[in-house]
Design goal:
With 645 residues, this protein is α/β, with parallel strands linked by helices. The chain contains 22 helices and 27 strands. It has a seven-stranded mixed beta barrel with strand order 21-22-23-24-27-26-25. Strands 7-6-3-4-5-20 form a six-stranded mixed β-sheet. It has a five-stranded parallel β-sheet with strand order 17-16-15-18-19, with helices on one face. The two termini are 43 Å apart. Bound molecules: alpha-methylisocitric acid (MIC) and iron/sulfur cluster.
Length: 645
């Protein structure tokens, strides 16, 4: 029986566990990446593990999220990360060099390698045939220390592409169509593998747009084969040496098959407030817009920017619209400057932003009240833009640019002619914004620069004999990490200060939550399905940990967040009968008797007794050998410290 591409790469990297669907496997990690908003924690954790130098083939620390320096905090974090990187063998991509995923694809990614990153859009690397997975900071720290990364052996979905995209239909429309069909829960526990004749018609940046936004499906990762197109891309990046051809065997067996005829696709938009709320322009109807933002790790490649420049050429942005453009990397920005496209954008009235995440994470450019904003980004969760009642639509660069000119949501197929982009034979290469680490001889003399906002990892404790406490919060379905631990320009500078950032935990849903949880001392959170979808931020577990949350009981979890809860030593529980969700109200007193004994004995079903209404609620506590030991120890840091003893 032939193998899928995913199986081939996983098999070459497996170091622990059995190759059986649904069971946990440990894989060797070749590369890691961090960004600054999750990086400070990841490096504090790495330091706490006491490993002097990273053991990966390549680890890179990027500064791209917290670039609005409206106080000392972000700049201090940048210096801290730069100094840790230098000391411990990590390459440091300075602020201004670009968004981690875009730069990693250009300069470091390699087909057939494994990459984990402390950012949920790490699967962008799947665009050149890597197994690239988003993870919590602690998992990345462990991988840097040479430890395996554990995933549930995934189901593998084949997306068979046929045909060719029509003019003005974009790679973004491919992934929006997949989201429309599968939903934000559709990829949980799965790897999405793209195959078929249609693959050849897509360039590397187009493939990367598709794998990037596979994160919104909840998928473990997404991957394209590594073929001649990949080789040409790497050659143009002067990195042909890392090229290897890779594809699935013709007789590979998949768990599911989805067929997409690229020729039949039309321009699409994801409507507020979910990436799977996908409609055609016709279905949405006449929509006046206030803002257009072009950029983010999904759509900021040279190809995307050249399409935008072509549409804007000689025109003026509509008087009621603010257009901002953030090219994804220094390489992209530099090439736009050299070929004149930047001047075209400036001339049309675009507000050019630095090469960073920017508005995507609410670092500036929040829309006006009730403002309608079209964005080429990947997430449109409520409030993420920084404006609570902002109406965010996710669209392709083509639709964004066309609409910026008309002032209304516009189908780009109404544009005249078409635009064919030819990938450059050579990209402009200058890695002068990537600082290499100190040599082994020099590393001891590198001083770590720690600012006053950088506070240590919160205190943890081994799992207690019995959990007896109140329910401090009850929330519904599809709670995102942007609900649990909001981002934005005001809160992001507190990413290295868990006590301070905890004061914002869940405030989007309930302003009183942090205060209430603190006064209860310890508590349990109850939620619906797909709890914790979205980002990889472990702050969504560390802030609850700091606030005394001992267990989270929900209908179902998103993958990275569940792992982050375990890493923080918080018990992840799911209802056996979803209807029991109704049997707990906020404020109820709950008991899980002898929980430590039950977990150590490997029991997967526990009982939560609701003392307030007398109900006995069966819950699942599905922990394997390793995750069980992590929770018993009080989290991954304690577990790793113990296992290093
Ligand atoms: C995001 O897109 O939500 C982020 C900001 O990149 C996060 C990471 C973070 O919260 O720092 C992600 O996707 O993992
Ligand atoms: Fe940055 Fe947005 Fe991409 Fe997250 S999704 S890495 S915030 S550009």
């Amino acid at each position: 029986m032939g193998l899928t591409l995913t199986e081939k790469i996983l098999k070459a990297h497996v170091v622990d566990g059995e190759f059986v669907k649904g069971s946990e496997i440990g894989i060797r990690i070749d590369q890691t990446l961090t960004q600054d908003a999750t990086g400070t924690m990841a490096y504090l954790e790495f330091e706490a593990m006491g490993v002097p130098r990273v053991k990966t083939e390549r680890s890179v620390a990027y500064i791209d999220h917290n670039t609005l320096q409206s106080g000392f905090e972000n700049a201090d974090d940048h210096r801290f990360i730069g100094s840790v990187a230098k000391k411990h063998g990590i390459y440091f991509s300075r602020p201004g060099n670009g968004i981690c995923h875009q730069v990693h694809l250009e300069r470091f990614g390699a087909p057939g390698k494994t990459l984990i990153g402390s950012d949920s859009h790490t699967p962008t690397g799947g665009g050149i045939g890597m197994i690239a997975i988003g993870a919590g900071g602690l998992d990345v720290a462990v991988a840097m220390g040479g430890g395996a990364y554990y995933i549930t052996y995934p189901k593998i979905v084949k997306v068979e592409l046929t045909g060719k995209l029509s003019p003005w239909v974009s790679a973004k429309d491919v992934i929006l169509e997949v989201l429309r069909r599968l939903s934000v829960k559709g990829g949980v526990g799965k790897v999405i593998e793209y195959c078929g004749e249609g693959v050849k018609t897509l360039s590397v940046p187009e493939r990367a747009t598709i794998t990037n936004m596979g994160a919104e499906l909840g998928a473990t990762t997404s991957i394209f084969p590594s073929d001649e197109t990949t080789r040409e891309f790497l050659k143009a990046q002067k990195r042909e040496d890392v090229y290897v051809p890779l594809s699935a065997d013709p007789d590979a067996v998949y768990d599911e098959v989805v067929e997409i005829n690229l020729s039949e696709l039309v321009p699409l938009a994801a409507c507020p407030h979910s990436p799977d709320n996908v409609k055609t322009v016709e279905e949405i109807g006449k929509l006046k817009i206030d803002q257009v933002c072009i950029g983010s790790c999904t759509n900021s490649s040279l190809m995307d920017m050249m399409k935008v420049a072509h549409i804007l050429k000689g025109k003026t942005v509509h008087p009621d619209v603010s257009l901002s453009i953030a090219p994804g990397s220094k390489q992209v920005l530099n090439m736009l400057a050299q070929n004149g496209a930047l001047a075209v954008m400036i001339d049309a009235g675009a507000r050019i932003l630095e090469s960073a995440c920017g508005p995507c994470i609410g670092m500036g450019q929040s829309p006006n009240s009730k403002g309608v904003s079209l964005r080429t980004f990947n997430r449109n969760f409520e409030g993420r833009s920084g404006t609570k009642d902002g109406q965010i639509y996710l669209v392709s660069p083509e639709m964004a640019a066309a609409s910026a000119l008309t002032g209304y949501l516009t189908d780009p197929r109404t544009l005249e002619g078409s635009f064919e982009f030819t990938m450059p034979k050579e990209f402009v290469i200058n890695d002068n914004m990537v600082v290499p680490p100190a040599t082994e001889a020099e590393m001891d003399s590198v001083e770590i620069l720690r600012g006053p906002n950088i506070k240590p990892f919160p205190e943890t404790a081994p799992l207690s004999e019995t959990i007896e406490c109140g329910c401090s919060l009850k929330v519904g379905d599809n709670i995102t990490t942007d609900h649990i631990m909001p981002a934005g320009a005001k809160i992001l500078p507190l990413r290295s200060n868990i006590p301070a950032i905890s004061n914002y935990c869940f405030t989007v849903c309930d302003e009183k939550f942090p205060e209430r949880a603190k006064s209860m001392g310890k508590s349990i959170i109850v939620g619906g399905s797909n709890y914790g979808q979205g980002s990889s931020r472990e702050h969504a577990a560390l802030a609850p940990l700091y606030l005394g949350v001992k267990a989270v009981l929900v209908k179902s979890f998103a993958r990275i967040h569940r792992a982050n809860l375990i890493n923080a030593g918080i018990l992840p529980l799911t209802f056996v009968n979803e209807a029991d969700y109704e049997n707990i109200a906020q404020g109820d007193e709950l008991v899980i008797a002898d929980v430590r004994k039950a977990v150590s004995e490997g029991k997967t079903q526990l009982t939560v007794v609701n003392k307030t209404n007398g109900k006995e609620i069966p819950v699942l506590c599905e922990l394997t050998g390793r995750t069980k030991d992590i929770v018993l120890a009080g989290g991954l840091l304690d577990y790793t410290r113990e296992s290093l003893k």
